[in-house]
Amino acid sequence: MSAAAAGLRPPRRAAAATIAIASVLALTAFAAAPAGAAEETVQGWTLSCEAGTCRASLPSLSGLQALTFGRFAGEDRIALGFASQTAIPDRERPITLRLDNRPLGTLAPERGYAGFERPEAFWLLDGKTIDAILQGGGPGRRLRIEYLDVTGAPHDADFRLDGLAALIDRTDTLLDRKARREGAAPGRALPPPPPIGKAALIMRQGLPARILERHRAASDCEDPQSPLLKPLAPVIGPLSRTAMLYGIPCAASGGQVSYKLWVLESGEIGGMTPLFFALYDPVFGWRGTDLLPNIAFEPGEARLTARSATRSDTGCGGRGVWRWKDYGFAMEEYRYAPDCGRSRNPADWPKVFPPR
User: Fold this and answer.
1) Quick one: which of 188, 194, 222 has its CA closest to 8?
2) pLDDT single digits (tens) 82-102
3) What residues make up the domain containing 284?
4) Which of 29, 54, 261, 345 allows an S-S link to 71, with CB 3.0 to 4.6 Å?
5) Residue 159 — pLDDT band, cuts 50, 70, 90?
6) Which of 201, 223, 248 is the last residue of a domain?
7) Secretion signal: which residues (predicted)?
8) Same-domain pairing of 257 and 169
9) What's the rounded Cα separation, in Å, for the pair 117 and 194?
10) For residue 140, is it within any domain?
11) Contacts of 192 (CB under 8 A, 6+ apart)
């Protein structure tokens, strides 16, 4: 029976959604609370105040993002920001904001918004845009932030603004001073984010949802969120300025893990491509496969290694090495152990490719 026929797809999506919500709630708590401050909830916002500063955050309707709020010491105006661990915004691209589907504007990086504190977050710099959000908050009102993540995937982050006025009133009480219903950038109240490259952010973001959906639809692999595979981390690494490698665990048995590999392009054309490789069999010769065992990836050399430790009547395992060249992996070497009496070091195994 297929996985779809068995009704496994919806629970998989539910599991992924649960993980995403857990991740953003962890980020929300971090963004909201100054060190040592007590938290409270105000109509969906998580709020903490200490030493003349109030911070709050609100999960998006999808659970993938958080809207952040700040009243910082020495400033009576209000700052608004955004954070996401599972759909990290690409801070080199513009973002668009809408209030109840009415455009508020498109903000350019470093002029309309900028990163502070963490690589996964930014704060708005444009006071007029913040003013419009503060004045537009109320029952039934929704803010949408449209952006591209670091892999080039589009996202719509929707937030209910029902509790915004109550949140501001509560901070007035806790700080014993009234806020001006005006927007302000955080300025010197927050440090700049630590320097980190886009490839590192892509790796930090983990498996994109579109890769997982394609993986589940196009393969017979076990669910990556199953009890057997969940503890196994995917293999992620940069292949070029716009291409990333994703190795997703497919099956695990006898100490060997098989991976299905994908390339995700985030350039102007973009797209997802499954990878296929040649493996040697002493009986049938070379055969093609979309699974590689026990893989390792060296980002600096864009080199992929796979080692099989499966014993059989015809051999005792193989080891292949491939390097990324422009648009595909080229085999550099393949060794095969014809019997288990030889050294366990693959470097000592007979070389099958290249033949000399």
Assistant:
1) 222
2) 999 888 999 999 999 999 999
3) 207-353
4) 54
5) very high
6) 201
7) 1-37
8) no
9) 7
10) yes
11) 115, 116
- What is the pTM (predicted TM-score) of this model? 0.74
Which residue, chain included where needed, has tokens 């296929």? 276
- Angle, helices 9-32 vs 209-218, to 10°: value is 170
First to last CA, the chain: 47
Amino acid making up residue 167:
L
Distance separating alpha carbons of residues 316 and 339, to the nearest angstrom: 5
8 A C-beta contact, residue 323 and residue 302 = yes
Q: What is the mean pLDDT of residues 218-227?
A: 88
Percent of the chain scoring above 90 in pLDDT: 60
Boundary-marking domain end, from 201, 217, 251: 201
In a domain, residue 9? The reply is no
